[in-house]
Amino acid sequence: MRNAKWLLAGIVALSAAGCATYNTSILVWPSLDRIDQGVHSDHIYEVSAAYRDQPGNVFLCVRGAPAGRAWWLGDTEFALIVPHGILTGQPAAGQLRRGAWAPSKYVLSAKDVKSYCPPRVAGTDAYAVLPVKRFKPEDFGSRALDGVPKDSVRALFRSEAGAPAVYLISGKWIEGSSVENRVIVYVHDSVVARESSAVEIDAAPRQVGSQTAWIIALPFAVAFDVVTFPVQLLVLLVGH
Prior knowledge:
globular, five-stranded antiparallel β-sheet, alpha+beta, 13 strands, six-stranded mixed β-sheet
């Protein structure tokens, strides 16, 4: 019985202590993650600002974790970009899909996600500031996003046509949920598609490329795992 206890504790501790090496390896070789084969999501916690440059591209400065960012680094600011062509009916507009909250939806690709926010670097002289209008499900008579009447939301966007702005509806998807979701919609100053100036912005899961610079951290991750293994093993044994 005692041997079985030691064996079980050793297996658990070894598995836990291997996390640093494993997670660092995934940054270098995303395809090692057998669950999603290198496909990750951009997690958006907040929209901090919005801008439009002179050519007409829309930039959203957001806080969160872009796909492929190591979870232990915490959140950061990055940018989502809606290309000018999407908003003016050029060939790129073929990437628009039917939306749930707005008549049309634009699914961001990897090239539309920047690791920094360009307006923060270049200054706002080259960018027009767009208002960010924030709402909660309660503003539409609901306690959660799944109960918000979509017709009321679309009516709001129609009433705001001609005044470019970003709309953010934040709340729990269902009552009692511990996770907060966000609906992001950009309202243009002219029709985008389907006789509407509103387009929903969707950060869908995307393929993440290798981040070879992280290979430098691998020896430190291995060393950390080796050092923490006996400590975790001792904690497990004492706890039992």
